[in-house]
Specification:
Blueprint: E1 3-10, E2 13-20, E3 30-35, E4 38-44, E5 50-53, H1 60-67, H2 75-85, H3 95-109, H4 113-116, E6 123-124, E7 126-129, H5 136-149, E8 153-157, H6 163-177, E9 182-186, H7 204-216, E10 221-223, H8 231-240, E11 244-247, H9 254-263, E12 268-269, H10 279-291, E13 295-296, H11 305-316, E14 323-326, H12 334-338, E15 353-354
Parallel strand pairs: 7-8, 7-14, 8-9, 9-10, 10-11, 11-12, 12-13
Antiparallel strand pairs: 1-4, 2-3, 4-5, 6-15
Helix pairs in contact: 1-2, 5-6, 6-7, 9-10
Length: 372
């Protein structure tokens, strides 16, 4: 089997849903649509085709020079070559190509990816990753609705001007959802690779004080409470508090997670395939986490096909308790991005999402959305 072609295929937008101001990007609006965007398609001489999230079309010539005529099963060679020769921007780089190659492997072997990766779970627990930094009352009302729909876990954005406002948000949500539902908290302090970013900046003291208040409220984890590369301080924070500390979504290399281990940073790794250039590197972070008694919960995967790749990965890992789904309805509903797939899985009333059982990723693009 040889790769014959790689394409970036555009998708029609069904409709605009609206705008939200993400908590991690204050002052900027994100537009949400049903459909739209693009996907990567990798073709082979035997007619087996794989799909992945879209990438910058300007990378196509370099990607083709690395892959055309090559065996798609040589995935480690391809991942290394692509990273060296075609390093693109996060979410616009070659992650979709890597995922499409894995899709080809699964289709050729007639097995879903989670089984090829040694997994046995056919369903996982998703958490609703909220988008807005909103009022305690509004977040509590939404959390109560989500719990009534079956969601088992909810992640709050938590970086108001004061610690008091943050804790009142968690207290109000906890009262609304009860003691038996999982609350996660994201401080979004690692968006920048430097020391500055828009919004409220936490210091070490605020991270410690927040973590101790979250312990009292039974929060499962505190995510990214300090800058992206402050591994020493993050390790010190982990030693000082009982609540789990999570992070890593913006870290671009496996070597950075090795440095986290050496510094004792994070109890839960959150690698992102769309930042690490695919699931080949993501799998390595999962093994590293297991070896050092850490849990691993991948970041949201870009919202569509990447999420399906993460779903298979979570189903293959015994130390992965959740799948992240960016979900802040009605505008930020995860199903808007899933609409590009003809057979996308859905979160059930039991609070689980089932892993597709078809070969490879087990999902297909809605052909009606492909631009001619």
């Amino acid at each position: 089997m040889k790769v014959t072609d790689i394409k970036v295929i555009n998708l029609k937008t069904v409709r605009d849903v609206g705008e939200l101001e993400p908590a991690w990007s204050p002052g900027h609006k994100a537009r949400f649509q049903v459909g739209g965007g693009s996907f990567v398609e990798v073709q082979t001489e035997e007619g087996v085709t794989g799909i992945g999230p879209g990438m910058d079309p300007q990378l196509l010539p370099a990607v083709k020079s690395c892959l055309v005529g090559k065996d798609p099963f040589a995935i480690e060679d391809h991942a290394a070559s692509l990273r060296y020769n075609v390093l693109g921007a996060p979410y616009r780089g070659t992650a979709g190509v890597d995922i499409a190659l894995w899709d080809i492997i699964g289709r050729a072997c007639k097995q879903p990816l989670y089984k090829l990766w040694g997994g046995s779970k056919d369903k996982v627990v998703p958490y609703a990753s909220l988008v807005l930094l909103s009022t305690p009352e509004e977040r509590a009302a939404l959390a109560a609705r989500l719990v009534a729909e079956g969601w088992k876990a909810i992640k709050l954005r938590l970086h108001h001007e004061t610690l008091k406002e943050d804790i009142r948000t968690v207290e109000t949500v906890r009262k609304a959802v009860g003691d038996h539902k999982t609350i996660l908290v994201d401080a979004n302090q690692a968006q920048s690779s430097g020391k500055w970013q828009p919004g409220v900046l936490w210091d070490f003291r605020r991270a410690v004080e927040t973590a101790r208040e979250l312990e009292r409220l039974g929060v499962f984890w505190l995510e990214e409470p300090l800058p992206r590369f402050a591994f020493g301080q993050i390790g010190e924070l982990c030693d000082k508090v009982e609540v789990a500390i999570a992070g890593g979504e913006n870290n671009r290399g496996v070597h950075e997670f090795v440095q986290m281990v050496e510094a004792g940073a994070y109890d839960i790794f959150q690698p992102e395939s769309m930042v690490l250039d695919g699931v080949t590197a993501l799998r390595k972070v999962g093994v590293l986490a297991e070896l050092h008694n850490k849990q691993v919960v991948p970041h949201h995967g870009g919202g569509n096909i990447g999420v399906i790749a993460h779903l298979h990965m979570v189903a293959s890992w015994p130390h992965a308790p959740f799948l992240e789904l960016l979900h802040d309805p009605p505008i930020g509903d995860y199903r808007h991005r899933f609409a590009v797939m003809a057979n996308a899985p859905q979160v059930g009333k039991d609070g689980y999402i089932h892993v597709p059982q078809g070969p490879g990723l087990g999902v297909e693009i809605d052909k009606n959305l492909i631009e001619k």
